[in-house]
Amino acid sequence: MPTSIARPPRQQSNALRRTSAALAPSSRGSIRGSIGGVLGGLLACSIACNPTGETVTPGPKPGPSPTPTETAPAQGRRWPAPPPPTAPKPVRFPDVASFQLPTGLTVYIIENHEVPIVSAQLVVRCGTMDDEFLAAFAARMLGQGTQSRTKAKLDEAIEFVGGSLGAFAGTHVSTVFAHSLASDLKLALLLMADEVQNPVFPPAALDKVKQEAKAELRNQMAQPGVLADTLFNQVVYPEGHPYGRPAPTEASIDAIGLPDVRRFHSTFYRANNAFLLLSGDITAEQARPLVERAFGTWATAELRDLPPNPLNRFTRYTLPSELVVHVVDRPDATQSTIRVGNLALARNHEDWAALAVANQLLGGGPNARLFQDLREDRSLTYGIYSHVEPGQAPGTFVIETQTRTPTTGAMLAGIFGHIARIRTEDPQRIEFENTVRELVGSFPLQVETADQIVGKVNEQLVYGLPRDYWRTYRDGLAQVELSEVRKAAQQYIHALPVVVVVGNAAEVRPQIQEVLPTAKVIEYDGQLRKK
């Protein structure tokens, strides 16, 4: 979704502490690396040339050349060939125990007894796709006081034991989290349960949250990356889709009232519409009485009263029939921010592994084709990457980069050249094997800590992945055939993608028309309104 204070990412993992001024972390379309314009040209003349063009030898005149007997023989070094890559070491994804309370709250336990710490994540199945502001506001205001504790008392209680407590809203789910020593888990769960079940939502807190949201909105809308992500998602998805809402306004923030926040909370924050993840120095036997005491009386909802998933309204997605370039005009810009991509597939699709390999080969990192060519060889950018955005509905495949204004056309030509190549040619065997090896070998780094493992379990539950998905994840990548890369690219990396360019329209438009002569160009102002 577009990057805004009200539109956090679908792959949310960073915890938002209460002291943060923002309601949520960056959005699903956030920029992966700091990318900017290319370096300027090399100096035209070195110190060895004077203004007249005559060669000047710096320093004193050289002495007589040594005789052959005075010259020491060169001592060359011979480096041994690197050893061949070894087979990946086995990684055993830990067992996940679970139990369910009579209220319908399901609890998952991931044991890790290396340190006496426990992390708790209460995940409620509602997010900004249900309402772009109310989900974020409700989560942010949970810690502003309960019927029995003021905000100061809540903060004092968790800080006294060296723990933390907070909440944030993502696209699909809202998360209330707590971290504490294992010996203090009882207190942490009771405070979490009090916030979730008995919030008071004070009017002053709503006013503060709204002011923070408007300040963040103004800041975000001044960033070219945010404008590019927002417009890209808006035009790639059908009108009204939760993944592609237009840019929010301050007026829409001002229109929110306390009854709206309370209604959202009472509708979605129910025991049978949530699950609890506990990771760290805890067992299922130890967890059950603590969870029962904290959440045993949490009210449930009638399933028919829960609003349907808003994604269910969109059963058909159409692809562009013509090439359109959407240009956001920023007359003072010295570089262009570019997004090129299209609708792809849902996170639980069977072709995810094949597309992951194709994406990694094309733009998944500094060893990928886009980076090696357009950054290393042609010096058109500081960085260029591609990624596949996960979603319950079809996500997007996106190439993102920045380049100097005069090289916008060259960058677009280079991107389209690489898209055509991966769609029409099988990769070389060595390139394919190195890409798969990189993906398989990086997985252990993603499951080193208890919090990382919790994130994987959360991903499995949110996107409806098979129960043994992470146990067999590397096997699935290793089983991708070379021929499947081109097949995945043909199906999910389109020849007629959506193109968004944020930059100086007067300078980039002629370049676009030169390198993409059949493209239709639509211009927008800095507020993403069509000109």
Overall 3D geometry? globular
The level 1 CATH classification of the largest domain is: Alpha Beta
- The total of beta strands comes to 12
How does the major sheet shape up? 6 strands, mixed
Radius of gyration over C-alpha positions, nearest whole angstrom? 27 Å
What report would you give on this structure?
The protein has 16 helices and twelve strands. It is α+β, with helices and mostly antiparallel strands and 531 residues long. The chain has two domains: 97-313, 2-Layer Sandwich (Cytochrome Bc1 Complex, Chain A, domain 1), CATH 3.30.830.10; 324-524, Cytochrome Bc1 Complex, Chain A, domain 1. It has a six-stranded mixed sheet with strand order 1-2-6-3-5-4, sandwiched between helices. Strands 9-10-8-11-7-12 form a six-stranded mixed sheet, sandwiched between helices. A hairpin with a 7-residue loop joins strand 9 (384-388) and strand 10 (396-404). The longest helix is centred in the middle third of the chain and has 19 residues, at 203-221. The chain is globular.
Summed up, what is this model?
The protein contains 16 helices and 12 strands. It is an alpha+beta fold and 531 residues long.
Strand-helix topology:
Elements: E1 97-100, E2 106-111, E3 117-124, H1 134-141, H2 151-160, E4 164-169, E5 174-181, H3 185-197, H4 203-221, H5 224-236, H6 250-254, H7 258-268, E6 274-280, H8 284-295, E7 324-329, E8 335-343, H9 352-363, H10 369-377, E9 384-388, E10 396-404, H11 408-424, H12 429-442, H13 450-462, H14 473-478, H15 482-492, E11 498-503, H16 505-515, E12 520-524
Parallel strand pairs: 2-6, 7-11, 7-12
Antiparallel strand pairs: 1-2, 3-5, 3-6, 4-5, 8-10, 8-11, 9-10
Helix pairs in contact: 1-7, 3-8, 9-15, 11-15, 11-16
